[in-house]
Design a protein that fits this description.
alpha+beta, Isoleucyl-tRNA Synthetase, Domain 1, OB fold (Dihydrolipoamide Acetyltransferase, E2P), four-stranded parallel sheet, 20 helices
């Protein structure tokens, strides 16, 4: 039997305070959460919406080191930027706190101590890289080296950015500390671990059997972790930025950010409601719902529930409607490449168009699989749906009422069968939208709300009041009365999705707050009610606007690539004897052709002074084969042969890579004999 709840606590993932928030965050977490909370409030339910910035951990210290400031200065700045961005988009948190607050610091410390005193942790000793010059243990991101898989330089201790492979620091070739530049050494250190393996026995059936209504993507990720078997997870680390581990002998150790951050939901609730916060976290009649992105599924479905269960007095989440990722212009959003649409910049570039982005992101919501945002689709949905459907119906109904009745709601006369058919259509929408919102299907729910506007447009088009006014003015009163009732219904239906537009529409209708239970009524506006001044609810977006946004993306990505290129360190010194091992020669390109079914590869026939040799090179995207024939290029002659696409390649053609990824083959400035050595 489904449990009955008296209140709902909604949390949204804590954004990390080492940067701003972008449209991927908005689509994945904050707009869906806000839609749901606004809907619950409209229904008169008791609900609390909690969030805050996540302000501890290594990325903050990296940002601080890069900018030459303190970690506190970093999180203060980004907490402000994030808070203003959310306010600008109408994300209606009841409280937005931060994990550097005294309340959080104390609660997280007490939480750890409770679990520690109950024996819920295990202590383990492990080896970790230590910087002897800086006299500090190194977090994974403070260690770089050569990737053991693709052999790219500058791979981090947790991941190679070039090939995307997850790494551990000990896998790196020639590891170096980014703090001092020295070679780190392995040193033993001791930490506390949450033994998730002990919790699998209850966690697995709790998720897979008791919560079968959870989204398939959430269930799938949890099952994969269970199939692999849960492992102990460290709850402390060696770092000087964070909440100190509150036990003796833990000097220089802080709570791991993954342990510290979710406790922020509790501490932020306590900061808002110091006397009644426990009702929201410890009462069985409270429903807890976490809105997160897919990268946080395991933490909110497995790790945090294990923490709460181990503590013993807290409720567990009833649902975790996690979204997948949103791509941007067919590419993965990347903050490191600045390939993102930042919310604070959007608010400046497109003022007054918050609801347009909310609408488009909901229409493209990555609810069970990754989805894509493009500026052209943004423009098309605004012009073809918000303007041409929703805005058009509202404008026609209000303008006709102003023209024929001075903006006063006319009396409704006898209803025709067609009128009753239309009424039936739009009163049924309420039940459908409710069912979809209760099931966290926000994309489909918004589509149903838009159907109200489509119904209204069809009703006006088929009724033709501008023609009927000449022959049957009484009939026009009924047509416009029903049209205005439908407009008032739209103000209710779209309130959770488009709060700014709904507020504007209520002003035009000269009505106050609305209630969800009134959705579907044909008596929202009384006969004789004076409407406000009609305005355009939405405006068309021109090509130049979206073209400027696309160009801005390209410019930011190029500027960031150039900055990263200039910041690249020269590789570590080598001995001259190592250089002498390379046999670099000049060869003349006799023939060049594309390799079938290989977009990147060109097959060269090179005259090397002794014979002809075949070399396969991955530069097909940068040169047409015919442009290279007859040119003299530099190549490494003494590499062992290697088969590429079934072709034996006998060397490597040398190219220079520009900051934007373009390749240029290395040539000589005047002709030399094939086979000449490069010295």
């Amino acid at each position: 039997m489904k449990q009955t709840f008296n209140r709902t606590l909604v949390t949204a993932a804590l954004p990390y305070a080492n940067g701003g928030v972008h449209i991927g965050h908005l689509a994945g977490v904050y707009v869906p959460a806000d839609i749901y909370v606004r809907y619950l409030r409209l229904r008169g339910r008791e609900v609390l919406f909690i969030c805050g910035s996540d302000e501890h951990g290594v990325p903050v210290t990296i940002r601080a080191r890069k900018e030459g400031c303190t970690p506190q200065e970093v999180v203060d700045r980004y907490n402000h930027i994030i808070r203003e961005s959310f306010e600008g988009f109408g994300i209606s948190f009841d409280f937005f706190g931060r994990t550097t607050s005294p309340t959080h610091r104390q609660l997280a410390s007490d939480f750890f101590r409770t679990l520690y005193d109950k024996g819920e942790f295990v202590e383990k000793e492990s080896e970790q890289y230590y910087d002897e010059e800086a006299k500090t243990f190194l977090a994974d991101r403070y260690i770089t080296g050569e990737c053991p898989h693709c052999h790219a330089e500058g791979a981090y201790g947790d991941q190679c950015e070039k090939c995307g492979t997850a790494l551990s620091p000990t896998e790196l070739i020639n590891p170096r500390s980014t703090v001092s530049g020295s070679t780190p050494v392995l040193r033993k250190t001791r930490h506390w671990y949450l033994p998730l393996d002990r919790h699998q026995q209850w966690l697995e059936p709790w998720i897979t059997q008791d919560h079968k209504d959870w989204r398939s993507n959430v269930m799938g990720q949890c099952k994969s972790w269970f199939d692999m078997g849960l492992q102990p997870r460290a709850v402390s680390r060696d770092l000087d930025w964070g909440i100190p581990v509150p036990v003796e002998g833990a000097d220089g150790k802080v709570l791991y950010v993954w342990f510290d951050a979710p406790i922020g939901y509790i501490s932020n609730t306590k900061e808002l409601l110091p006397d009644s916060w426990e009702k929201w976290w410890k009462s069985e009649d409270t429903r807890l719902v976490h809105f997160i992105g897919k990268d946080n599924i395991v933490f909110h479905c497995i790790v945090f529930p294990a923490m709460l269960k181990a503590e013993g007095s807290y409720i567990l989440p009833d649902n975790v409607p996690a979204n997948e990722f949103l791509n941007l212009e067919d590419k993965k959003i990347s903050t490191s490449r600045n390939w993102a649409v930042w919310l604070d910049e959007y608010l400046k570039d497109l003022p007054g168009k918050q609801d347009v982005l909310r609408y488009v992101l909901t229409a493209n919501a990555p609810e069970t699989k990754d989805n894509n945002f493009t500026w052209r689709d943004f423009q098309a949905r605004n012009n073809n749906e918000l303007v041409a459907v929703y805005g058009n119906f509202v404008n026609r109904a209000l303008q006709l009422t102003k023209k024929y009745y001075d903006g006063v709601v006319p009396a409704r006369g006898t209803l025709t069968d067609f009128d009753r058919e239309i009424i039936g259509e739009f009163t049924d929408v309420k039940a459908r939208v409710e069912e979809l919102l209760e099931g966290f299907r926000f994309r489909d729910a918004q589509k149903e709300a838009m159907n109200l506007a489509r119904i209204g447009n069809k009703y006006l088009a088929d009724s033709e009041p501008w023609k009927v006014i000449k022959t049957d003015p009484e009939r026009v009163k009924t047509i416009l009365n029903l049209s205005l009732q439908l407009v008032a219904n739209l103000a209710i239906a779209f309130e959770p999705f488009l709060p700014f537009s709904s507020e504007k529409l209520r002003r035009m209708l000269a009505v106050g707050e609305v209630k969800w239970d009134e959705l579907g009524s044909i008596d929202l506006l009384a006969e004789g009610h004076q409407l406000g001044t009609p305005e355009l609810l939405f405006e068309k977006i021109e090509d130049s606007v979206v073209e400027a946004q696309v160009q801005k993306l390209l410019d930011m990505e190029a500027a960031n690539a150039e900055a990263n290129y200039r910041a690249n360190d020269i590789k570590a010194d080598i001995q001259f004897e190592d250089f002498e091992k390379l046999d670099i020669r000049v060869g003349t390109v006799k023939a060049c052709e594309r390799v079938p079914k290989a977009d990147k590869l060109l097959k060269f026939t090179i005259a090397d002074g002794l014979d002809d040799r075949t070399i396969v090179s991955g530069i097909a995207k940068h040169y047409a084969p015919e442009d290279l024939v007859g040119r003299q290029v530099c190549f490494i002659a003494n590499l062992p042969p290697r088969k590429l696409r079934g072709i034996e390649s006998q060397g490597m053609i040398l190219s220079a890579e520009n900051f934007n990824g373009e390749l240029s083959v290395i040539t000589v400035d005047r002709e030399v004999k094939p086979g000449s050595e490069v010295k």
